[in-house]
Amino acid sequence: MNNLLEMFAQRTFERNTNTKVRIAFKGSHVVQFRSETYVSTCDKRTRFADELSPTSREGRAANRSTAFIRRRSTVGEMDEAEEARGSTAVPAALGPRRFLVTGGARGLGAAIVKRLAETGASGLILDRAVDPSESYAWPTVAVDVTNETALRETIQADIEKNGPFNGLVAAAGIVPEWHDPVNIDLEMLNRTLAVNLTGFVATMKYVVPTMPRGSTIVAIGSLNSWRGDPNLLAYAASKHAVLGAVRSAALSLGPRGIRVNAVAPGPVATEALLSRIESRGEVTGLSQAEALRASEKLTALGALATPDDISNAVIFLSGSQSAAITGQLLAIDGGLL
Ligand SMILES: NC(=O)c1ccc[n+]([C@@H]2O[C@H](COP(=O)([O-])OP(=O)(O)OC[C@H]3O[C@@H](n4cnc5c(N)ncnc54)[C@H](O)[C@@H]3O)[C@@H](O)[C@H]2O)c1
């Protein structure tokens, strides 16, 4: 590990100071430091200093770089192969990580599984509705996330067989029919909370105990994690609650090196959204195309986010490029401001 740290400390220091360095460590401190300072990047005349004291200006800067790298490498999940390649610029390099994706059989969850698999990650999909004729990227088990016993048994059996997960993406979710605070069906409210909130928390409950440092959790929240909706009280309440769970879990799990974040998609034209638009047509008087155009017009970019946009944000929040980000809700909505 020390060789890798040396390499990273050197690279960070060189990038920041335009100085070529050789650093030797004892424990976590610089004991030997050679530098060649470029007078300018074009003109490679150098000033050469040998064995600078660790208390010199350069020595102190190198120690700071090293401390920074140490912090990042315990909080982030940079695996040693990735560090050795120095490929921090490639967000897709999730490599041999293992993810659990709930709701991964369809819609946004399925798009996220596809992108994760493209990055080399393996994993398990849990979904209430599994189509046996479909070929999924990863093994897929039919489980309802509100059935705690089935959820626990499935997760624990998979961990025993294949090892711990170091990534969780909680995409299982439902959107109820339109309602208001007077005509609301309280069973529907409880069901919405049970899937969107309790299902997410229950999944964390059984995945987290074996998660190694550097693991990540990403929940699919919604714009309704911070905005109300006159027709979707139950949904907005459940997605606000998801954000509360994300922030609280981020605080509890941060010291264990596990990051917890959420994405907030704006409207994304998944099958589920299109069929909701269709069924609301009687009330809104809008065709599917008109309703989508109306939503697009509300965005700064004049376009809705796509499943790929959401997947890219999940990859970012699951990768080392977001190593200092936890407890956050990232809006991916084309700018619904
Ligand atoms: N599509 C959008 O516009 C949009 C916007 C904001 C947030 N979201 C959120 O993204 C997530 C996915 O939405 P989508 O549009 O892809 O919907 P979707 O219906 O296509 O996908 C949801 C998946 O979750 C599964 N699921 C539902 N209840 C489950 C349960 N109890 N146990 C296990 N699996 C269950 C479904 O079978 C389905 O495969 C949801 O949490 C949704 O609230 C979607």
Mean pLDDT: 82
Q: Level of helix content?
A: 40-55%
**Radius of gyration over all CA atoms, rounded:** 24 Å
CATH architecture label of the largest domain? 3-Layer(aba) Sandwich
Q: Can you list the ligands bound to this structure?
A: nicotinamide-adenine-dinucleotide
CATH class annotation of the largest domain = Alpha Beta
Class from secondary-structure proportions: alpha/beta
State the shape. Answer: globular
Widest sheet, order of strands = 6-5-4-7-8-9-10
Number of strands: 10
Largest sheet: 7 strands, parallel
Number of domains: 2
How many distinct helices?
10
N- to C-terminal separation? 45 Å
Which stretches are low in confidence, meaning pLDDT under 50 for 5 or more residues running?
1-5, 15-19, 28-54, 64-92
CATH topology of the largest domain: Rossmann fold
CATH superfamily of the largest domain: NAD(P)-binding Rossmann-like Domain
Order of helices and strands: HEEEHHEHEEHEHEHEHHHE
Protein name: NAD(P)-dependent dehydrogenase (Short-subunit alcohol dehydrogenase family)
InterPro entries: KR_dom (IPR057326), NAD(P)-bd_dom_sf (IPR036291), SDR_fam (IPR002347)
Keywords: NAD, Oxidoreductase
Domain Ketoreductase: 97-266
